[in-house]
Amino acid sequence: MTRSLRGTDPETVRAALDTGDPLPGTAGFAGELDGELVRDTLGRVPLFVEADRDPTDAWAFDPAELDDPVQFPAGAVAGPDDSTPERRWTLPDPDPIADRERALDELDAAIRSAADEFRTDTTSVAVAFSGGVDSALVAELLDAPLYVVGFPDSHDIAAARSAADAMDRDLTVVELDPTDLERAVPAVARATGRTNAMDIQIALPLYLVGERAAADGFDALAVGQGADELFGGYEKVVRLDHRVAAETTRGAVREQIRSLSDQLPRDVRAIEATGLEPVAPVLHDDVVSAALWLPDELLADEETRKRGLRAVAADYLPTEIAERDKKAVQYGSLVARELDRLARQAGYKRRMDDHVTRYVESLLDG
């Protein structure tokens, strides 16, 4: 297994360790540094260790390299003699900026700066484009080719086509059929180390669009991941229902941000399995910091979610795109529907517990 530090240079991480700075201006990092394992506070770079082993003795970026992999905790550090990783960085909890325009200006500057950094560092990038505000803003700032994936009658393909037309951009449409899912499921499960239905449904579109972009000669795939978590894109952060523990929208948004450390390794590994580098400008430290400072009025309410991000996006995108809502990728692409259909055709009926997961596991066994 490759022993290294990924995501940034050693000096930056050493300085972050010395100062305790959880957002030191990176796009995430993980790996080995000076004999210790480290991972950034949001867990943007996947890092796995062997269960019940000294973390520094058995670790990998790819879970398939380990016999019994578990995630190394985000924001943690572990040395050779540490049986339990120590939490070293935690998400800041600043008082929001009272001045709405100042908060938006800082968010705008952070997003532009992050996009500029990725554009400079990445030679050939395509954008996973769904037609929603998140991927559209990334596409506009990176000025990169657009790729959408889905079944022919899917919402995402229709939305991406209309958005590309409104933005006057070309679009590559990757139309799927059921055999694409059957072929890709084992690769995605092995790359992510997961077989549960929801994770596979979310990772499949990323893998399949990345596969096409890689075949077309691109080196990286840009995504809008993180926007819903950072800016209040989920209905549950407004409704404050059983899915969240917080009693305020601001608290619920922070819950979603903390959930990124579990979600991102799935998405990153799915893209990396195609040979592409994942690029997520919205998850750069500078953007995360600006998002944490947003006042409550720029988060979400019953009428509009991701208010701050949409306000910034309105300066770059047609109004219809900046204000557009979209479906989750597994539903918008119809991947969830078609995977469920394949499972039932293979004999895994809905009356069975977790029938799609059982189907995924059967493909791995096969």
From TrEMBL:
Domain Asparagine synthetase: start-end pairs: 120-257
Keywords (A to Z) from UniProt: ATP-binding, Nucleotide-binding
GO MF annotation terms: asparagine synthase (glutamine-hydrolyzing) activity; ATP binding
Residue spans of biased composition, Basic and acidic residues class: 1-12
Transmembrane residue ranges: none
One of the GO BP terms on file: asparagine biosynthetic process
Protein name: Asparagine synthase
Organism, scientific name: Natrialba aegyptia DSM 13077
